[in-house]
Amino acid sequence: MNPEPRSSVLPSRPRCKRCLRPKSHCLCTHLSKIANRTRVLILQHPSESRHALNTGRLAALGLQRSQVLVGEHFPTLGAIVAESTLVFLLFPGENAIAPQPLEDRSDSNTALLIVPDGTWRKARKILYANPILATLPRLCLENGAPSSYRLRQTREPAAVSTIEAVVRTLSRLEPDQDFSSVLTPFNVLIEQQIQAMGREVYRQNYGGLHTAGDSDLRFD
């Protein structure tokens, strides 16, 4: 009787159920839980949810009022939008404006920031699949500090990761709150990945281009 062939597929490493990172590289000790008045809803494309460098999830984990929905079409989106008196879509466009402070605290407590999370093509697919998004006022980021996202190549110097886009937008909407600690696990994640590949490999692969988020959005 012939023995059963061994599987060539290596068993996956145990993962943290919260941050979804391998338990040996869990980021939960670096997570904050900042009190944001503006609720954040991240519409994440399925391909992005499976990516090792999933910064949208980290953004949501670092905020008290946040939610991630994974998919392309979101049937409950209309009801979610109807619950808020002030709704913004973080996505560049002809009529997009830079975020301004929400002076009225009652407005900010019921405000909703919707953030598509995926490559340009995937993010646009989310917009087309959910027509209600086209009716919302758009926000875009002014050119600011370069992205810290050093592991995804882009030729667009203004490109930033999803977590950076969320933090920069909330910092403008709620200037009285410090959101910088939301970025801590993101920075740790980048360092973990660089150490895993080795500094020399990192320099060879990422030294020639600006590195930000090819899966994340450029906000002009």
Report on this model:
The structure is a single chain. With 220 residues, the protein is an alpha/beta fold. A five-stranded parallel β-sheet has the order 2-1-4-3-5. Residues 1-10 and 208-220 have low confidence and may be disordered. The protein has one domain (23-206). β3, α4 (105-110) and β4 (111-117) form a beta-alpha-beta unit. It has helices at 46-49, 55-61, 77-82, 105-110, 120-129, 162-173, 184-197, 199-206; strands at 39-44, 66-70, 86-90, 111-117, 138-139.
Could you outline the blueprint of secondary structure elements for this entry?
Blueprint: E1 39-44, H1 46-49, H2 55-61, E2 66-70, H3 77-82, E3 86-90, H4 105-110, E4 111-117, H5 120-129, E5 138-139, H6 162-173, H7 184-197, H8 199-206
Parallel strand pairs: 1-2, 1-4, 3-4, 3-5
